Amino acid sequence: MNKPKIIFFGNGPLADTTISVLAKKCDIIFHAHTKDDLEEVKKLKTAHNATDNSDKIYGILASFGVLIKSDILELFEPEGILNIHPSMLPDLRGPSPIESAILRGDEYFGVSVMKLVKEMDAGPIYYQEKCDKPLINQYSASPSDKSNIYNTLATIGAEWITENLNHLPTPKEQDGSKATFCQKMDKTMSVINPSTETSSEVLRKIIALSGWPKSKYEFFGHECIIHAAHSAAIHQQNDNPDKKSTNNFANEFDELSLKCTDGEIVYIDSLQPAGKKVMDAKSFINGYRH
């Protein structure tokens, strides 16, 4: 049996995982990265539609970031372009569903496969799945946390597509009255403020803003990007309340810590001063405290 042919639209981590999964069972005939690539998409699909060819060329999209106009959408009818959106639509329509879900305190995340329409993330739903396990550790933040969510959701959506592309169900319309929306992340969100943020909010900000625009805090007069941290409560989760900071430093003066508005302490594990490489907290203290 021939592999399904796909024109893929996408950029970034969601797209990277999606296309790697699709490529195992599908023939990716073109990958559109930019607005300029849409002209090539139009040529390819128009030429294919003009032939008496029983093999379809499907359109799959994941985090493309470019408006696709009606003239191209129509070329992929009746199935349309299938869009992998990392939320349980109509919740969190918009450009930052994963980051916004992290910031609002979600532990469980979901993904939707919908038909792309002109209105943002409003198309009918082919498939949805919510993970049955939390993808966030509420007591720590590390560089891999967000990428794990992206990879998990993209894999779920892409695997469903590969298994169902040749026999798609009838998509179900969304209830627009229940729609919520998210906005782009921006640099104004970057600064950590423990005097107004709880320990959980600080940790979630570090996770959500990792990659871009990044979470920042000033230590010893140096603005630093925070890469990893944990709260004292992590030891309760590990059933070891007597365990000291995972930094394993000799005393309290060898730890970078933030007392948050809820009274909890967030310990910084790794950080990056401007123009420098990422370093652990002890190395930063040794180099910058004096």
Commentary on this structure:
The protein is α+β, with helices and mostly antiparallel strands and 290 residues long. The protein folds into 2 domains: 174 residues, Rossmann fold, CATH 3.40.50; 102 residues, Roll (Methionyl-tRNA Fmet Formyltransferase, Chain A, domain 2). The protein is built from 8 helices and 12 strands. It has a 6-stranded mixed β-sheet, sandwiched between helices. Strands 7, 8, 9, 10, 11 and 12 form a 6-stranded antiparallel β-sheet that branches. Helix 1 links the parallel strand 1 and strand 2. The termini are far apart. About 5% of the residues have low confidence.
What's the number of helices? 8
Number of domains: 2
Beta-strand percent range: 15-25%
Name the CATH architecture of the largest domain: 3-Layer(aba) Sandwich
Which consecutive residue ranges, at least 5 long each, have pLDDT under 50?
Answer: 240-253
Tell me, what is the CATH class of the largest domain? Alpha Beta
Number of strands: 12
Order of helices and strands: EHEHEHEHEEEHHEEHEEEH
- Shape verdict: elongated
Helix content: 25-40%
User: What structural class is derived from the secondary structure elements?
Assistant: alpha+beta
Oligomeric state of this protein: single chain
Read across the widest sheet, the strand sequence of neighbours is 2-1-3-4-5-6
Can you identify the CATH superfamily of the largest domain?
A: Formyl transferase, N-terminal domain
Tell me the distance between the termini: 68 Å
Mean pLDDT level: 92
The CATH topology annotation of the largest domain reads as Rossmann fold
Largest sheet: 6 strands, mixed
Q: Roughly how many Å is the radius of gyration?
A: 22 Å
